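Q: Hi! First time asking for a complex rather than a single chain. Here are the components, and I think there are three in total. Is that enough to go on?
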Amino acid sequence: MRSLMMTSASLALFIGVTACASAPKEPEPVVTPDPVVEEVVEDVVETVVRDDSMDNIVTEPTGPAKGSLQDFQVNVGDRVYFDLDQYRLGADAQDILKRQAAWLSSYPGVNILVAGNCDERGTREYNLALGERRASIVKNYLVSLGVDDARIQTVSYGKEKPLAIGSNDDSWAQNRNGFTQLLDGVVG
Amino acid sequence: MPSTAAPIAEEDPEDLLPDFEEEKDTEEPEETPEEKPEPKPKPAPKPPADPLADFLNQSETTFKSEIETRKKQPEPKPLPVVDKPKTALKDAPKPVARETRRGAGARTANTARIESLIVSRIRNECWAGVDDLPYPETLNVKMKLEVNLNGTVADLRLISPTRRPLGNSPMGTAVDRALRAVNKCAPYRLPKEDYDQWKEMNIYLGLGFTKK
Amino acid sequence: MLRKLLIALTLGLMSSWTMAFAQLEIVVDRADLKPTPIAIPDFEAIGVDLATAAEISSIVKADLESTGLFTVTDESAFIQKDLNIEVAPRFADWKIIKTDALVVGSVEQITRDGNPLLRGSVRMWDVYGEELMRFEDSSGRQVSGRRFTTTPEDLRRIAHKISDAIYTRLTGESGYFDTRIVYIAENGPKNERVKRLAIMDADGANVKYLTSGKFTVLTPRFSPEAQQITYMSYEGGMPRVYLYDLRRARQEVLGNFRSMTFAPRFSRDGQSVLLTQATNGNSDIYVMDLQTRENRRLTDHPAIDTSPSMSPDGRQVVFNSDRGGSPQLYIMNTDGSPRTCPSGGRDVACRITFGSGRYSTPVWSPRGDLIAFTKQTRGKFHIGVIGIDGSGERLLTESYLDEGPDWSPNGRVITFFRERAPGASPNLWSVDLTGRNLRRLRTPTDASDPAWSPLLE
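A: Yes, that's all I need. Here is the structure of the assembled complex.
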């Protein structure tokens, strides 16, 4: 739950244009309260991100509207975690992905980008491969649950885009993930 | 003793070529107390009494950068000197037995000592080895050295390989280093009485030459 | 007892009279590597100011000293001051200060076709052998000295060329001073890192940035032949392998792969690029011909196969695979034919690492006999080397993160990047193939993924 809240903060930054709710400062109690992932912006999906000035991320403390990004982050979960060196989906991860699939079937206009991430305790190139494998595992699972694979793009960031910046087990665990980002067609 | 005055002393081999009468003194302490390291315990400390030790010590006469380098790689300078004769003596506690085994006195304890002195000086002071070159075990250089009575090089010839390969190659470098090492270690200031023993020597540098 | 021995010794001495031809047998099997003492007095200035000549000689000194193989003799010890490049020195003056080799050089300004040029010349003397050390010039001829001419702006390159000549003459191996290093310049917080492609001289001078930092770029590698770099960029969103032409300052996507490509590396002849394509969770290795732009798949295995590096003769490829359960190094024939594995049996790909730990980023040495790698074990990272049959593994470094080795063009030095401790920024380092002479390469920013160019023309 903690990390879930944190990611909502970061995602709010990330998708500045469409972000609506939630004060970024809200999840203060989180271990690493940093506005993460902003960097992703440039490289990933230029189309979406473009000119998001920070002003757009106004504090607008309304509850998550159905079909919104916030809804997806808070009520569904946008991130699944992997064990060290692993790319198998545990039960928790499968639950989250089942909710993602259900959510996506309710909002068929939404396309997603699944990013595979790794911790820093591996080499760059191997981690790029491992990240790609994690992203594909997530994608394939969603497809197996009925999501049209044309709606899902994948990317690997290897160890280049850590969510948590610490160098310890907690941070590494957070950084081994598959991260589902909503690309377009998001409501409100 | 160190630095400034030193280099000049180096120039003049004559004033270091002394009294070989002392030589027997140096044999004794080595033989009796096996444990004791070097001729230090001598009661009458005539500073450079031992010409062999001089041969080793002449490299003290350097300037600082060299001294620094040397500090970094601590040389067990005196050790090989003690070491080798000692084992030789252990092998043959009874001189007689030794005689019979070696025959005709071709190699005395002194010969062994001269050998080990030259070996340790080449190893510690003059030769850089070939460990850093590709396939070092194939880079073996045999030379024949003739020395003048005053220790300078009279002739130095390559035996194997018979000549330095032209151009840049690991063997070329190995040959360069070997020849340079032998030249650099001169003058070989050794006991004049034994000149017959050391006026010619075969020098083998390389991993392929295992020690006898 | 003592007396007996003395008698025996005396007898021995006497009998040596009869053995007039007794020879000493001096056998030395190995010696510790000793830096070669070399004297490099300031070069003579002919028609240029003293500072220019001194700058060149001081770059030469720095180059040679950086190898750990030489100690440059302190000039305060010099006795002979009246050196002339055309005249033999007084060898005794140099022996006395324990110098093995003496470099005498000059720098002059000349005019060619109306353009001012700088010309650097050197000779080298073997102090103990009392003779001129002849060089081999770039066309293989034996010459008594080397002379390099270029435009005044390339002053540093004259110095590096001279350093390479001296290094080659004294070590028997080609040099690596007149080279460049391409790397990733990094700055910004860890989760928002800006990564730019950067290039500098091998001694850290002349840093230039080739990309703006708008897109993350990774793992650049130099072509061993041409002025080209291959690397991976996130430009356009999808990670793909690019080619960068240094002369034209232009980049292009390499090939039209349908999915992510990464981990590029040139073949040793520069005619093709090996890379990895990841599709649907599976990474496999491809080789792309740069002329025809056709690619061929080298591995076809459900495990991760990446980080390929080709042998100098082009016949074999070493790569990283987790097909055995954890990342390890494997070797295959470039034509895909089965081979006899060092561990027994025949297979298309033979595993060569069996030590405890994870191995990755293998890079074949230009000499051909060794493979450099990154090894992760017991919470530490190492750079190491291993024989191509998997024997003789040697770890050269250790730290929190040591990663991404690449060889100097002569196969003598390995550069890599290091994060000293948890949370520390990455920096470039180098280490001798033997594990000696570990040193940091200074860069204006944090830096990672260094790769060495070939010797420049």
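A: Residues 1-49, 59-105 of chain B have pLDDT under 50 and may be disordered. Let me know if you'd like any chain examined more closely.
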